[in-house]
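Why predict the complex rather than its parts? Because the way molecules touch one another can change local conformation, and only a joint prediction can capture that. The input here totals 440 residues.
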Amino acid sequence: MEIKIVRNVLEENDSLAGQVREQLRARKQSMFNFMSSPGSGKTTLLQHLIPILGEKGFRIGVIEGDITTTCDAERLQPLGIPIAQINTEFFGGDCHLGANVILGGLAALPSELDMILIENVGNLVCPAEFDTGAAANIVLLSVTEGEDKPLKYPLMFRKSHLALISKTDMAAVAEADIPLIKSNMRKINGVIEVMELSGKNGLGVPELADWLIQKHKALV
Amino acid sequence: MEIKIVRNVLEENDSLAGQVREQLRARKQSMFNFMSSPGSGKTTLLQHLIPILGEKGFRIGVIEGDITTTCDAERLQPLGIPIAQINTEFFGGDCHLGANVILGGLAALPSELDMILIENVGNLVCPAEFDTGAAANIVLLSVTEGEDKPLKYPLMFRKSHLALISKTDMAAVAEADIPLIKSNMRKINGVIEVMELSGKNGLGVPELADWLIQKHKALV
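Output of the joint prediction:
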């Protein structure tokens, strides 16, 4: 019974994700979905990434997903870009962004943007189950979270096209084994692309910007 | 419609959590539910905590919750205690432990234990919605996750009796503001107890053991 209900919810979501993709095509926009545990560095990354994309002439918008609060949107506000805040509060707070709320987010953003970045709810489990309509899923895993996480949360890494190993500036202190993190990611997903970066010193962020621009050009 | 279904699932869970509490009372056992994001240090904490409780004469069992793998149970195996592994794999992996699987875990553990520690699925959102039947909920938040997390994931902190600020050995490197973390926890839950600890150097773990023993004695 419960399985059937869940299947219906996911099928409904897939159909709405199709509508999201149609709208993006019509508006000549690309969209990327950033996911991770709470505190892996999504917002800090966006703070560094968006100015680089802006300098290269891309008009960026953000769909900011949180259960509650506008903390992350407020951190991005100084960038002067349009932000659609989605709060999923619902019996204590929904744990992911579904395609239904992404449709609402798109409607709230200007149609002349080039690229939309989704900052999903901080959760390494549930957001992976819901297609947002994005061109690619990007998962962050910080070096402080432990090398075994790709093995323990496989769906997230299976559904992601790119994995970002974040907070590399803390790798030594955290005694993180980055080659082992990579090898665990590839055990789960043999074709996942992997990059290392640090939001703190900005290392690796220009390479991520290039990756997004390349994907964008291939799409629109 | 979806709200109604969810309400039914939660009501069913509450009723099963009542059955868990009855069984614990009959067996004179206490049970504590450890929750956090992936990689906040739950397993490392248990590795340090269980020997301390053992030295004080407590027979400990663990219910180990993971979507998939037995990584964490394998880390605890050298302690020589009984461990009930629960894998929630189900359309890619259920995101929390419900009271139904806790009943199964209890059945798999010896009845002569004194205290059962649940290591829930790594997720700062969904496990808070499901009463496991534990005597207390304990949330870990590591200093690397950011001071704003209690505000952004309020249900978890509202439902927890004790909050552990973990990885304090990394506080300086992470530039963490521990008083701000505490004040944010108390903004959400004015009566939450807060302790600081480090699984790496063991600081604060004996105090946690005392807290659990005091709760245990008040219960059984």
